[in-house]
Amino acid sequence: MEKTKIALITGCTGQDGSYLAEFLLKKGYEVHGIRRRSSIAKLDRLSRIHYGPHAERNKFFLHYGDITDSASITQITKRVKPDEVYNLAAQSHVRVSFDTPEYTANTDALGPLRVLEAIRTLGFVRKTKFYQASTSEMFGNPLESPQHENTPFFPRSPYGIAKLYAHLITANYREAYNMFACSGILFNHESPRRGESFVTRKITQAAIRIVRRKQDKLYLGNLYAKRDWGYAKEYVEAMWLMLQQKKPKDYVIATGENHTVKEFAELAFRVLDIDIEWQGQGISEKGINKKNGKIIVEIDPYYFRPTEVENLVGNASMAKKELGWAPKTKFQKLVNLIMAEEVKNKDL
Ligand code: NAP
Ligand code: G4F
């Protein structure tokens, strides 16, 4: 009988961590996740597996730890003896990284280093494969379009810069210690589990509240930023596939098409039978509900970033060729899928 594989996920309580845990459990893995202590347990995204049937519970374990705390990371790694580590823990909000640059560097740059060092110093280099959650934010103001694995990096935020350190240190451990360590350069991916302060969920939740008359307006920043938005549930499979290859290598994961924030808002409201008419320009631009003439979208400069990433779109052809991975859910389907879940949420 084949030995059960053991996976350790940092950032298990997050959007991707929860989908990845479910995916690996279905594959028959024993899954260990790291959770941070907080005043309220934030296990909503894990409810299906954490409170699920006993059989599944016996294969899913949560450990208290923090990516800024080497001792906890090393102790958990030592106890779990993972075959695969997925490092997803991060301060993942680009705007917030301008407010907390030092914390972001500690979490997003030094965090992965702590995990790599735990694997190395415990003598697990031959046993344990490592995945790092890299990001299209590293391309920043990209020098070419679409972006691929060899596009030069030009990050534009403390977040992007911290993630670039993590990306490069992962490559260094691969080369220096012959470790199976690789990074997925993932473009934006969303879902009904996406954090509520990212622009997609902010829009979909506001659209519902506006229709239910619980909110008057939606305040946004840059309406013209373009992103390559895919579906998170599909992207976690690519993470796993990268660790199943013969050799460790970094891959871009993307849909290959991009859209503006404005387009996203239009589609989300359209699901609720609301068409937006845009009037004005710059910070005076407003979105008006065509049916009743009410202003439903306004610009708040608070959401502008000191340095913005205007236009990202990825080329995932290497992943398609070598991993056999391709996105199934494109823009319109993604918006509909998130809206379908929001509509069911009676708390909004
Ligand atoms: P997310 O929902 O914000 O999840 C982040 C996870 O990291 C949460 O579980 C969070 O725990 C945990 N975390 C934060 N600080 C920590 C710390 N100090 N110690 C331990 N855990 C900590 O992010 P996501 O969208 O799932 O993204 C997963 C990873 O992929 C992140 O590294 C992100 O930067 C990267 N990424 C995301 C995208 C995207 O579009 N989603 C694209 C490219 C790369 P709490 O639940 O306690 O907050
Ligand atoms: O949804 P966002 O906050 O995502 P952003 O900055 O692209 O970062 C996400 O994707 C990265 C991959 O490229 C990840 F690495 C990162 O962890 C995160 O998951 O913003 C998207 C765009 C930006 O251009 C932003 O300026 O939307 C624009 N935007 C306009 N109004 C807004 C808002 N963003 C937010 N969060 N809130 C607004 O009101």
Automatic annotation (TrEMBL):
This is GDP-mannose 4,6-dehydratase. The gene is gmd. SUPFAM superfamilies: NAD(P)-binding Rossmann-fold domains (SSF51735). Catalyzes the conversion of GDP-D-mannose to GDP-4-dehydro-6-deoxy-D-mannose. Its EC number is 4.2.1.47. Belongs to the NAD(P)-dependent epimerase/dehydratase family. GDP-mannose 4,6-dehydratase subfamily. It is an enzyme of class 4 (lyase). InterPro entries: GDP_Man_deHydtase, NAD(P)-bd_dom, NAD(P)-bd_dom_sf. The keyword NADP applies. NCBIfam families: gmd. Keywords: Lyase, NADP. GO terms for biological process: 'de novo' GDP-L-fucose biosynthetic process. GO terms for molecular function: GDP-mannose 4,6-dehydratase activity; NADP+ binding. Its cofactor is NADP(+). It comes from the Bacteria. Residues 8-336 form the NAD(P)-binding domain. Pfam families: GDP_Man_Dehyd (PF16363). It catalyses: GDP-alpha-D-mannose = GDP-4-dehydro-alpha-D-rhamnose + H2O.
